[in-house]
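To whoever picks this up:

The parser on our side crashed when reading a file containing two proteins. I've narrowed it down to the boundary between the first structure block and the second sequence. Both blocks are reproduced below exactly, byte for byte. First block:
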Amino acid sequence: MESVVELIRRFVEEECKKPSSKYGYEPYPAHFVPVNKYCKILAGKLNADIEIVEIASWLHDIGSIIDGRENHHISGCEISERKLREFDYPEEKIRQVKHCIFSHRGSKNIKRESIEAQILADADTMSHFDNIGGLFNAAFVFENMDELGAQKAIRQKLINSYNKLSPEARDIIKPKFEAAMLLFR
């Protein structure tokens, strides 16, 4: 029998493959997979509930994939709750996963009340350093920026992202941050 983590991972991948996906398949390998990787690393370092952070890592942006980016932390909670109930996942654990998803956005000032929620927020931010090309794509395609404007905006985004990280996450991502700053110089 497959684990709930694997069932959820497959659900998210299938949603990304659908023609109705707001961003196509690309977010799955370029964003969801790195977020999951960093969640597992941080959960191991911080003795967090690995199952909660893994499920939250796969579901954290499902609202964007299905409904679009605006308020995806809210729609993602609703989608996640329905999906996890389909698998008879325990209600207390659903609540924990939903809190991680609800509070993961760096642009929203939502208090993170668990180490698992902080891990997801950190991992989401850390993934920026694995996909700088994707940041440029978003700047060009979705924000209509020119090259110099995109360089300036992305450099600042990476600095802001790095400064928001917990000390443990900052230690892990520091070599990629320094490499990015060298390239943007």
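<<boundary where parser fails>>
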Amino acid sequence: MSTSGRAERDEHPVPAPDAGAKSLEQVRELLFGPQHREFTRRLARTDIHLAAQAEELRSEARRRQDVLEAYARKGLEELTAAAESQRSAQVDAFNSVTRESREAVRALEQRVSKLEETMARTQRDIREQLLEQAKSFVDEVRRAREELGAAIEREVLVAWGEETPEQAAGARPATEQADRGEAGDRLPEAA
């Protein structure tokens, strides 16, 4: 048997390694060729479809990023404008308050100066009135002293007997009339 087994082996020559791979490839082609080509074609379409979707996703992401950037820029510009307008309003309000304060200080200074002038004028008027009253009082005291001196002198003369009471009484009415005239002149001044 061994000889017959050897003969069988010899009858089928062993193909060369290249020839076997080629024939295996042909068998594969025959068995799986149409399915393989269909699979390759579908895989290529899927790759193209995935690449298109990836590109679409990239463009959508870029578009959304641009929209977000524009929104953020717009919001920042609005915030900047609002801050600037608020700062401007605050500066205007501060300037207005400063101006009003200056005007109030000026008005107060004018009132104070008018008050000082009025007070000085009033003090001057009071001093003049006091001086006039003092002069009037001094004149009145002087007259009263002179009258008292004259009355005392008459009384002394009467008491010593140099003059009679009738003579002194005759002199008295003239003195009283003079006193009344002076008192009448003084009354309007005191008033």
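After patching the parser it read the second block fine. The CA atoms of residues 116 and 167 lie 62 Å apart. The first helix runs from residue 2 to 11.
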